[in-house]
Specification:
By secondary structure, the protein is an alpha+beta fold. The chain has one domain: Coproporphyrinogen III oxidase, aerobic (oxygen-dependent coproporphyrinogen oxidase). It contains 8 helices and 9 strands. It has a 7-stranded antiparallel sheet. A two-stranded antiparallel ribbon has the order 7-8. Helix 1 runs parallel beside helix 5 and helix 3 runs antiparallel to helix 5. The longest helix is centred in the N-terminal third of the chain and has 29 residues. The protein starts with a helix and ends in an 11-residue tail after the last helix. The model has no long low-confidence stretch (mean pLDDT 95).
Length: 288
């Protein structure tokens, strides 16, 4: 495939993955029999946005936010997709591979953050993306963010992604797990953001089909293992003390996303939709 075909193939996959995940999460809402089962099952609401410069069309594309709020299981979850193109600012271009030669870019991807009603159900983050400058590469990953970590949940999450990684590269899991541990760290708190997972960026092995298949497998693995963890705990009752711990943990999560997260910086510096970029923030949080 030429580069235009690759762009279209990647964007089409992220759209399909969005649809698959949203269907999976809505099925969880329907099946819940827990403390909030008297609520109407949550449903995603979709909102499109457009960043096209109407003057010259040089800055274009857009995306769709899929947001569910106030469900039986999901307090707030966003599954956003976007496909955009444009030109980096001279200063920002210096930090992006290939953009120093030509500041034009293309980016397509999916970004997901789930904040749960129950502190016993882990929050989660997942995103995968395809970026094109004068170079092109895949990036993304998934990481678990439990307010009340449960050893078996953490082990099962990591086992699923190790299996995924091992089928694509013998060193992928150890490399990408380490990268995740180092990246999702809050220096001013001297603590990890969560229980980790995998994180990769600038993946270009000169075998585009293989890199794309790995990225697709990351999405499929996420949609297998995370719903399993939700269903394991979604019908359990929780205490007010557990809820307070959840709200305090969410404060740390928000601090990372606002201060350190590359995706937040990329979106804001490329004229992305602010509502979509800040979708990752929890609906409620506390600071001690």
């Amino acid at each position: 495939m030429d580069i235009e075909d690759k762009k279209q193939a990647a964007a089409a996959w992220f759209l399909k993955l969005r649809n698959d995940i949203c269907a999976s999460f809505e099925a969880i809402e329907d099946d819940n029999e827990g403390p909030l089962s008297d609520r109407t099952p949550g449903r995603f609401e979709r909102k499109t946005w457009d960043r096209t410069n109407q003057t010259d069309g040089a800055e274009g594309g857009g995306g769709t936010m899929s947001i569910m709020r106030g469900g039986r299981v999901f307090e707030k979850v966003g599954v956003n997709i976007s496909t955009v193109h444009g030109t980096f600012t001279p200063e920002f271009a210096k930090s992006i591979p290939g953009a120093d030669k030509d500041p034009r870019f293309f980016a397509t991807g999916i970004s997901l953050v789930a904040h749960m009603n129950s502190p016993r159900v882990p929050a989660v983050h997942m995103n995968t993306r395809f970026i094109v400058t004068t170079q092109h590469w895949f990036g993304g990953g998934a990481d678990l963010n439990a307010p009340l970590p449960i050893e078996q949940d953490t082990a099962d999450f990591h086992k699923a992604f190790k299996t995924c990684c091992d089928s694509h590269g013998p060193d992928y899991y150890e490399r990408f797990k380490k990268w995740c541990d180092e990246y999702f760290y809050i220096p001013h708190r001297n603590r990890a953001r969560g229980e980790g997972g995998i994180f990769y960026d600038r993946l270009n092995t000169n075998a585009w089909d293989a890199d794309f298949e790995f990225t697709k497998d990351v999405g499929r693995t996420f949609n297998d293992v995370y719903p399993m963890l939700i269903r394991r705990h979604m019908n359990e009752a929780w205490t007010n003390e557990e809820r307070e711990k959840q709200l305090e943990y969410r404060g740390y999560y928000a601090e990372f996303n606002l201060v350190y997260d590359r995706g937040t910086t990329f979106g804001l510096k490329t004229g992305g939709n602010v509502e979509a970029i800040l979708m990752s923030l929890p609906p409620e949080a506390k600071w001690p």
